[in-house]
Amino acid sequence: MSRLPLTFPCSSNVLAGTLDTAPALTGLLIIGGGSEIRSGAFSGQALLAARIAAAGFPVFRFDRRGIGDSDGEDRGFRASKPDIAAALSAFRAMTPNVERVIGFGNCDGASALMLGSGIDCDGLVLSNPWVIEDDAEQGIPPPAAIRSRYAEKLRNPRELARLLTGGVDLHKLSRGILSAMKPKPAPTSLAQDMAAGLAGFDGPVKILLAAKDRTAQVFEGAWNTSDDRIARCENAGHSYVEPHAREWLYQQLLAALRA
To answer: Which residue, among 31, 17, 15, has the nearest Cα to 72 in the 3D structure?
Structure first.
């Protein structure tokens, strides 16, 4: 196995990518979220790619236009379909033995894959998909997440002691209870578009949610919670930096690659 930096075209721009080579006939294409460069938060994607490649599967990562080492203007995840398609084409060209590619996206990288009906990937692993349209809503968890948080606190003897001894702001508590009693919000148009796009994909799909992540909580509030493609990692944050979450994500990806 080796790590190869490379460039490839996307329209009139030049994008930067990294290939971790390995012999398997199935490969992993990683699509980052937001303006994250291809190494990922705390080099998480680079470390993950090395580990997946060591298990035998080639991995391709890239910077979309206007991010990291890539040319052009960053027009956001809604306009990133050509970038992902160009990266997939470069991946296949560099690994002609690869027969299947699993697309793995986190945050709005997952959303882009859903909106594009998989963008010619053979399987999808969608992590903490982004469904928020209003910037004002970014910090507000859905009612189900608030109820879950309060249920967890009520199971904690220390929190109960704080309540009984006056260590809890009752005004803040009452606001939280009122928020928890609100009905499930209607799906945003973005969530609806993502659902429609995913419905047009006929390959295997896994949806991964980090239980402590607000983005994942908002997605779950806008999605069909009975979807049996959903898997949750408890006590995990958005980038799976916790040791148990890092291992969980690795095992989920291996399962998708081996299926």
So the answer is: 15
pLDDT exceeds cutoff 70 at 168: no
How many angstroms separate the Cα of 51 from the Cα of each of 48, 80, 93, 128? Answer: 5, 27, 22, 21
Q: Specify the DSSP element, H or E, that contains 115.
A: helix 108-115
Q: Decide which of 169 and 128 is more confident.
A: 128
Asked if pLDDT for residue 254 goes beyond 80, the answer is yes
Domain positions in the chain are 3-136+186-258, 143-180
Residues in the chain: 259
pTM across the whole model: 0.83
What does the mean pLDDT of the chain come to? 88
179 or 2, greater pLDDT: 2
Q: What is the dihedral of CA 74, 78, 79, 81, to 10 degrees?
A: 120
Max Cα distance, the chain (Å): 67
Of 231, 182, 184, which is closest to residue 204 (Cα–Cα)? 231
Distances (CA, A) of 217 to 10, 68, 247, 252: 34, 29, 21, 19
- Name the CATH topology of 3-136+186-258: Rossmann fold (3.40.50)
> Measured between alpha carbons, how far is 145 from 134 in angstroms, rounded to an integer?
18
